[in-house]
Amino acid sequence: DAGITQSPRYKITETGRQVTLMCHQTWSHSYMFWYRQDLGHGLRLIYYSAAADITDKGEVPDGYVVSRSKTENFPLTLESATRSQTSVYFCASRDAEKLFFGSGTQLSVL
Amino acid sequence: AQKVTQAQTEISVVEKEDVTLDCVYETRDTTYYLFWYKQPPSGELVFLIRRNSFDEQNEISGRYSWNFQKSTSSFNFTITASQVVDSAVYFCALSEEGSQGNLIFGKGTKLSVKP
Description:
Chain A is an all-beta fold. Chain A has strands spanning 4-7, 10-13, 19-25, 32-38, 42-51, 54-57, 64-66, 76-78, 87-95, 98-101, 105-109. Chain A is globular. Chain B has no helices and twelve strands. In chain B, strands 2, 5, 6, 10, 11 and 12 form a six-stranded mixed β-sheet that branches. The termini of chain B are far apart. Chain B is mainly β. The chains are: A mainly beta, B mainly beta. At the A-B interface, β5, β9 and β10 of A face β5 and β6 of B.
């Protein structure tokens, strides 16, 4: 199916471990985004990418790394997970000023 | 600096009541876009509407309507004759021209519609 797919849907990990959240889109949109959603904060931008090999920081980038070697993939890596990174993570791609979101990844860091 | 405020954290209504969700935004740009997204209990984010800053016409889509007023920097969302399926968290968001499409979200309003 066309669209934007995130995996895994749920993830439990321990502090200090590296975790990678995957995001794949089938539309070939240039822009892609990673947001995290936390109670009381709404959605906040972590990183975004304007095209393959072009990425930039958002509002809350600390502790995260992204890459974009191919247009369709935009993985988000937590290099050393912390409890404060427990959150729901949404990937999105942009088409004509409209963002389309994936189903989200619920990450728990114990 | 851009900002979106949804002052109503939670609203509870009984089915068939009308309900308005408030959204106030701040921006220095003259060209910007406003959005509403719905997040049902299943968790996905569903696009509802996009409005650009030059189009102040109100919009109606079925039971949903949107009132955009630049004079008060508001973009309010009304659900007429609410239904249980409208229960969700609703987010208002702002995107400025030149922001590369990044959306600034409000904190959301949780709407509960009781039968």
